[in-house]
Structures are given as C-alpha cells and as structure tokens.
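Repro case for the chain-ordering regression, as requested:
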Amino acid sequence: MAYILLRYGEIHLKGQNQRFFVDRLVRNVRESIADLGDAQVRHAFGRILVDSPAEEAALISRLRKVFGIVSLSPVRVVAPAFPDIASAAVDMVGAALAARPGVGTFKVDTRRADKRFPLTSMETSREVGQAIWERFPQVRARMDHPDLLVKIDIRDQAYLSSDTIPGPGGLPSGTGGRALALISGGIDSPVASWLAARRGMTIIPVHCYSFPFTSERSKEKVLDLCRVLAGYAGPLRVWIVFFTDIQRTIQLSVPEGLRVLVMRRMMMRLVERLAEQERAAAVVTGESLGQVASQTIESIAAINAVTRLPVLRPLIGADKTEIVARAEAIGTYEISIRPYEDCCSLFVPPHPRTQPGLQEADEAERGLPVGALIDAALQRSERLTITPRWARDPVGVGS
Amino acid sequence: MEIYLDNAATTRPHPVVVESVTRALTVDYGNPSSLHGKGLAAERLIVGARDAVARTLGVEPEDVLFTSGGTEANSLAIRGLAGLARGRHFVTTTVEHSSVRVPLQRLAAQEWVVTELPVDHHGRIAAAQVELALRPDTVLVSVMAVNNELGTMQPIEEISRVVQRHRAAGSPTLFHVDAVQAWGKIPLRPMTWGVDLMSLSGHKVHGPKGVGALYVRPGVRLAPQLGGGEQERGVRPGTENVPGIAGLGAAARLLAADFEETAARMRALQDRLREQIRAIPDVRINTPPDGAAPHVVNATFRSVRGETLLHRLEQEGVFVSTGSACHSHNPTPSHVLLAIGLNTTDAQSTLRFSLSRFTTPEEIDAAASALRHAVAELRALVVP
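-- result from build under test --
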C-alpha cells in the first residue's frame, strides 16, 4: 500500500484548456495501474495523489512512464500536526538510511500552504530536523547538496516525501491528435514514435513487412518494440503492411540508385491510405538529416512530394549518439539491436543516390502500377492491438 | 507440405521415444534413488537406457554418464579434465562446435595454452598436424567426429593412434571426441579406437532435447562441475532426468536396430540432393564428396543471401538452415565456413540441408525443385 505524488509541468501553462489536460492525465494514470488494485487518484492543489493498495515499487515502475508527469515521489500522508509530521519524517529517514547506506547528510524543506499551522516553514524544518538528528545522530543537517532531502508540504494534510523520481514529461496521451508512425525495427523509428507520443499524440505504428526477405522474427521484434511503447502510451493499434510484392516490384523495375527512395515513397503512399481509415492527421518517421542516403534534404523533399499529410520527423536534428542514449533510456535499444534485418537494410544498393531530383523519382516510378500495388498490399495487411508488456499478448482484430 | 531438412539442428522425436518419455512422466515417475518400488522402476529405465547407449558404441554401460545434452558432455570432458590435469596444454581444431571452443577459450584466458589446428578446404585436419602440435604437457586433444555445418568426418582413428603413441612416451594426453553429429550416422567404436571421452546428444537422433551422454573410458577421472549427490558416480550429481534418459535409450535402440540400412538410405538421398544442387548454376558444394557423414549437404548459392533463400524456401514448406542453428541468431558469418576459405559474402550465401531417417526421395526432389526456383527468382531480384 502506498501514496505516490505526481507532479505535472507544462499543463500548468495551459489556460482555458487546463481542465481537459488534467482530466486526461488523471484518466491515463488510473489506466496505467488499473490491474494493480483499486486506487484512488485525486487531483488537488496542482498535483495528483495516487493512493493504491499496491506495492510502492510496482506503482513507480508504471507511473514513471505516464506522459505528462514531470516527477513523482512516494509520500507519507499524516495529520497536519507537529508530532505526526516529526514521527513520519523520522520513519522516512530511517527507511532511506536502510536503503541507501551512503547517506551522511540531510535537509528538511517545509512549505506551508496552510498558514494556520502554528509553526512557520523555517521553524517546522528546524524542529523536524532536530527530531531526526536525535534519533539518528550519525547524520548531520546540511543546507547545500544534502544526501537526503525531506520535503514537507502542509496543506489539508501533511505530505512528506524524500525521493524525487523523474517522469517522462510531455503531455498526456490522447490530447494531441492521431498520427501513424513508420516503424522499422531499427534504433531510430521507435524513438521518434516515443517522442511524438510524449507530446500527447496517439501513435499508430505501421510496419512494412517483407517476408521472405525478412524473417518472422523481425516482425516479432517490431511487436516487442510496440509493447515497450505501449508501456508509456497505453494500448496501441499496430499495422503490419504486406510489403513483399512492392519490394519485389521495385527491385525488378527501378534503377538501383533510386530503389530506396521509391521504397520510402511507396511507404508514404501506404500510410496516406491508412491515415484516411484511421482518421490520422500526420505521419511520424525516424529520419535524421543526412544519416543515410534517403535522409538527405533532397531525398526528404522527394519523399514528401507524394503525400499531403504533414510528415513529423522528431529526430531530424539529433545525432546518432543522442538517439541511442534516448533509446536506451526508453528501453527500446536492446530490442532494436537484435540481429534480424528490416526491409530497409536488405536491399540497400552499395551506392544509393544522395541527391535525387523529384523528376527522376517520378520517372523511376513510371513503370510501376502504383495504385494497384498499394491496393494489393493493404488487402493483405493486418491490424493488431498491442498492450503493454505487463498486460496481455497481442490480439488480432482482423485485417 | 512440410519438408524438414534441418536435422543437424534437431530432429523430430520418434513416436516410440515420445511414448517412453510419456511413460516415464506418467507411470514411472519415481526418483531412482528412492528405496520403494516406484524408485526401482525409474532406476530400471536408466539401467536400460545406459545399456542401450553403451551398445551403440560397443562399450560397457558403466562407462556411460548421462548429461543434460551435448554441450554439457563437452564441457564436462574439458573442464572436468582441466580441474584435475597434470599439464596445461590443449589441442583442438578451428571448426569445433562452440560448446568445445568456448570452454577452451575460457581456459586459454587463464593459465592454459590452447592450440587450434587449421583445416583444409573440406574442413578436415590430418593426424600429422596433431602429432606436431602435441607437447609433453598436453592434457587433451578434442576433435569432433563429424562437423555440424559441413558433415566432414575427421580421421578419428588415426588421431587416436597418434595420441596413444604420445601417451606411451609418458605424456598425460587424453583424446576427446565430440560425436554429437556422428552418432547414428557413422560407426563409432571408442574402445576399439582408444578414444578416452566421447560426447553424444539425444535430440539429434530423434530423442528428446535436454539429454545427452558422455562416454568415459575406465580409469579416466573427471572433476565434477556441480556439487550434489552421488548420481552418475558423483561426476554428474542431480536427480536423473528419467524421462529424457528413457527417451535417449529408446532413440539409441532405434538407431541400433537398423543402423546400416538407415545410413545407406541417407547416403543415397544425400547423393540425390547433391546432384540436383550441382545442376543449379554458380553453386559451390562445401560438403566433401568423400569422407562426409551421410546426412549433411552444405552449399553456397552465389549472389543470393542465405537468410532470404531460407525464408523463401520456408514459404514452400522447406525448412533448412544457414550455417548451424547456433549461428543463425548471429549476423557474423560462421567460423567454420571462414575456416574452409569462404569469404564473408559467400559464407552469407550458404545453406545447410540435413537429412534424417524420415527423409524420403520425394521430399528431396520437391525440396530441390523449390530450391532451383527460389534461387532463380532471388537472383533475378539482385542482379541490378
């Protein structure tokens, strides 16, 4: 059984809409811990307090992934009376000392929203500090960079916390519209999807599947990546597009240097069609400027030319090392580096064109039955629902 | 249609094996160490299995130890000897299975010295190479009987003679043979040949996974790698895997019953497949025409990616392997293919077909036809 205090950031800046964002955040928080027992999730004083029968560690591992939360702290809630506060603070320091052997200094920091409390903030801090020191003489009070910070917030109740755990930030899922996200199984595209989802967008990953040019395990890999994303964003709808015949046709009829570009353009066309069906307003891709031949500005221009949808590229200015660091932090990196190739890497010619003209691309596609290929691919595509790893296995919902 | 040609990775358990495993799980589920009748029934299964395995090698049952499989048998032979040995040198080849290479590499990282003998373009070493590599302090020579990727047989008898001569001159050298791919495919006579240790695995011969055996010549001592009870003469403690061992015993009886006919039938099918692969243009067959086990054909299909070809064949119901199964999760090319002189591109264009007692001529023809079409189709895609 535990209380967790959740802090949100940017939502405070919202004017008239603040209620909408907060309500959605509260709902997402509830859903993220729904299977862990009946919890009370209350919004008060610009924060959210979770009161759940579940274990603290289990709650934190879920809540630290909810978009919109800037930080969270396990809290103890006691009556706003000095003896209760002091004894809770002593307990809390005792637990922290047991868990973190290196702690030698502490500081008590009090905020008193309820000015009827008889002691001032400073006095409260000092008196509680004294109580802690009497019980644990081995720790000293220290004002700058203490090893342990005990925060006391006196409102309707007194809220005590000592650990602040960072959340993912961003805006609550479901507040930012819908977008399809091209996801390959590499390192970049899951990070791009995650960044877009963190801004509150509902992400619908689309994977272009090219069996037998790639293996069934590469599809499993993509679904595992989606499972990680679902751990943040909640259940996801995922499209597995049958891309084999398109790839085969491109390979047979498009000049070598332009194949990757034409492949990307075909993916955009597929996504545009799916966007109508999914009522999605944008596409998210993992492109980073100049990373590979299909990610030069000339290629990007030629790719954008086939769609009217806004193409969001959250990684456009990121270096590979930054993307890798982010992937590690999100938890997708270990999955992305599994050695099954995605369709992008298999057919890459040794020297793809880096500065293709728009006209060249159009000409290269002249022999392609574009519409028929797209129709056929969509007919054989499947839509799955992916739930977070802690929930259930993917459930097919027809194609 | 399902044509399973990945029998060097694992085989389909024989129905008789399934029955004996099931019986050990449902009826004879006692602990062989128990004093009551349930225990005795389980012990009898183990005695019977030990006897059946020993017969296939022409050795005494008490010289057969059961393990959790080929990997443990290899590890026990190498580490068990290193734990007691009176020398510090090992001799092996560059084409051994990772369950031999990795334990030796770990020893090499400590105070041990390991000589890896290079192979010829068939993947074979000569006994003379072993002779040159031996030192007065060589504790073990470890050479596989049949290579898992190529099917190439090593000159085990000749190597054994070399080792015995060396030992006669006063060295402590023993000879270990990883016979996991050889069992049931070629005759194995460790006692006659003077082999000291020989590893076997159940699931390569239609037995269950998770069970294997190590033949240990009388007088050879091994340091146990696990601490526990007195099972398997204390060398391999732990309550016996009775269902697995019963299944292994059943598999051993089955392979002994018609060993020669089965080997001859596989040999004929191997030739049949080899001929049909040879008819495909721009192919290199890596399995040697002579001196190979009867169940493997390894071939390079230039300018086709092995992985893509594998999945294309899978669409036609034909299951094969790129390199060995243990490599297929690893994008770096197989050390065996590189050791026989293939470049990286060719190594990545290589498939292994491996047959079993269940393989039929019709399956070979259908697989070869699917292969011919798949290679042609994929080559049409990669030619710019």
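Ordering looks correct now. Chain A has two domains: 2-166, 178-396.
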